[in-house]
């Protein structure tokens, strides 16, 4: 038999490529891959580390319990740089890997908005922690939320301040990004429904170096209570210190960032006696306590929502794939939406048809730096 | 009136920080004709050095401060030898690009060594501030303003009254002529880099207790300081100080009386106005092209 040059070249190419192709085929089948966009660098890099840890701990537990469809789960992390272009790039890198069956997006609404068109185009389930209510109400059926949205946090902050603390003259302070704007709007609407429209509605730009004008505006408004939606802990820390220095000591009920670890470290005593709505409160349920123990044992750091939502997202995604018995996106989606009364670290998951898993918030108090669970307020819609 | 006084104090305080960093921009620009885009990172590195010495190692604050500044002087030497010196005979563009590269290298090196967690650095004083009538004076801002005033006086004395200062001025005005007069130009540029790194470091250490210590702290301040430098007149020491203070006051009052979310916008609006109507800045001289 005589080989032509073309046959020889084709044979050589096939021979060289075969081991790599076999390895790739083997690798594709060996694990079930979950992609995760997380801030490894940028202003949210610290909380990004907590998020990755939460996801890894969940996957370890899933793998110990038999894995996903009988295979080991594998987490592929891409750095979103805490920016919108960063998360779009990170997601496109992950999306190009066809063997990734589901994804974890961001806790930041503005980033989820940025990646949402690509999510819709890809058509695979993406777990998110962003709390802008619009995210699950804009016709993108592939987004599934693992934290209560801001329509709930706004209602709970308003309800607690008006009914429990008995305050009616509100100053509402919020970041002007997607998260802060949506949160501020939700709080203002909830206050109006309770007959206590805010006396001050104040936005601020992220990464501000000085909040003196804001504090003075609060002082001048005559408000007797403050409700806040801060995106970055640095901003919260600077504001909290200046608020106290300039003598404003009114009660303060904040969005979840007010009780996260970084904020507590930076602001210190300036946040004592403040209240926060917390999707994660260690003492709120047995599942929350169990997660708290696992997380503390592994990291020696107190758990917070940054790690709890990713822990739940991986746990629920794995459970949904197992229940669906398939990695087909539509089947996973149906399985997630069918999840009811699922005990998670963040609370009990009852997915609605919009993709929202949680429908209530915990109220916690900063008692000299220690976060103490007060009560859980659940909404019926 | 109380409100105005409080805003004025804060505006001057934050403006003084911009002024300190702007001073570093100006000194290097005068000596080398290039903008050092790593000036903000000098502030960040110094703040982290303070955290290492004062918080992690528990050394006395004053000792940590001196060692951190010495570390900055060393960084100035390394920066000059590693970034400027090899490119000194090239046009300004490669040098500017090299300073941007150095800025990325510095911030990512700190990120790799120290991690992304923002850190808390205590201020120089135990008392956070004093209430003077209706105005609260933050002790750290008071210190920043005092240091800025001292530095203005020091710079005047140093550049106008000392031989070394005059040599530095001569070098910045005409390197060839200075060289012909027996001044070692490379030594003068080395001293300028050391002084600028120390100034940037000083700003970082002073502002760290107010803004916390983070990887981004330098770039945030440097952007405003750069605007302050242009407003004051690029290359003018007094202009940098006045530009920095003006920027701090304008953005604080703009935020209080017009819009908080657009606070940064006011600073850059002023910058754009200067670039259109007075590109040489407040104290800069018009550069006319000869026929």
UniProtKB/TrEMBL annotation, chain A:
<dbReference type="InterPro" id="IPR051010">
    <property type="entry name" value="BCAA_transport"/>
</dbReference>
<dbReference type="GO" id="GO:0006865">
    <property type="term" value="P:amino acid transport"/>
</dbReference>
<dbReference type="InterPro" id="IPR028082">
    <property type="entry name" value="Peripla_BP_I"/>
</dbReference>
<keyword id="KW-0029">Amino-acid transport</keyword>
<comment type="similarity">
    <text>Belongs to the leucine-binding protein family.</text>
</comment>
<dbReference type="InterPro" id="IPR028081">
    <property type="entry name" value="Leu-bd"/>
</dbReference>
<dbReference type="Pfam" id="PF13458">
    <property type="entry name" value="Peripla_BP_6"/>
</dbReference>
<protein>
    <submittedName>
        <fullName>ABC transporter substrate-binding protein</fullName>
    </submittedName>
</protein>
<keyword id="KW-0813">Transport</keyword>
<dbReference type="InterPro" id="IPR006311">
    <property type="entry name" value="TAT_signal"/>
</dbReference>
<dbReference type="InterPro" id="IPR000709">
    <property type="entry name" value="Leu_Ile_Val-bd"/>
</dbReference>
<keyword id="KW-0732">Signal</keyword>
<feature type="signal peptide">
    <location>
        <begin position="1"/>
        <end position="27"/>
    </location>
</feature>
<feature type="domain" description="Leucine-binding protein">
    <location>
        <begin position="31"/>
        <end position="367"/>
    </location>
</feature>
UniProtKB/TrEMBL annotation, chain B:
<keyword id="KW-1003">Cell membrane</keyword>
<feature type="transmembrane region" description="Helical">
    <location>
        <begin position="92"/>
        <end position="114"/>
    </location>
</feature>
<feature type="transmembrane region" description="Helical">
    <location>
        <begin position="6"/>
        <end position="29"/>
    </location>
</feature>
<keyword id="KW-0029">Amino-acid transport</keyword>
<keyword id="KW-1133">Transmembrane helix</keyword>
<keyword id="KW-0472">Membrane</keyword>
<feature type="transmembrane region" description="Helical">
    <location>
        <begin position="266"/>
        <end position="283"/>
    </location>
</feature>
<feature type="transmembrane region" description="Helical">
    <location>
        <begin position="141"/>
        <end position="159"/>
    </location>
</feature>
<dbReference type="InterPro" id="IPR052157">
    <property type="entry name" value="BCAA_transport_permease"/>
</dbReference>
<comment type="similarity">
    <text>Belongs to the binding-protein-dependent transport system permease family. LivHM subfamily.</text>
</comment>
<dbReference type="GO" id="GO:0006865">
    <property type="term" value="P:amino acid transport"/>
</dbReference>
<dbReference type="Pfam" id="PF02653">
    <property type="entry name" value="BPD_transp_2"/>
</dbReference>
<protein>
    <submittedName>
        <fullName>ABC transporter permease</fullName>
    </submittedName>
</protein>
<dbReference type="GO" id="GO:0022857">
    <property type="term" value="F:transmembrane transporter activity"/>
</dbReference>
<dbReference type="InterPro" id="IPR001851">
    <property type="entry name" value="ABC_transp_permease"/>
</dbReference>
<keyword id="KW-0812">Transmembrane</keyword>
<feature type="transmembrane region" description="Helical">
    <location>
        <begin position="180"/>
        <end position="199"/>
    </location>
</feature>
<feature type="transmembrane region" description="Helical">
    <location>
        <begin position="36"/>
        <end position="55"/>
    </location>
</feature>
<keyword id="KW-0813">Transport</keyword>
<dbReference type="GO" id="GO:0005886">
    <property type="term" value="C:plasma membrane"/>
</dbReference>
<feature type="transmembrane region" description="Helical">
    <location>
        <begin position="239"/>
        <end position="260"/>
    </location>
</feature>
<feature type="transmembrane region" description="Helical">
    <location>
        <begin position="61"/>
        <end position="85"/>
    </location>
</feature>
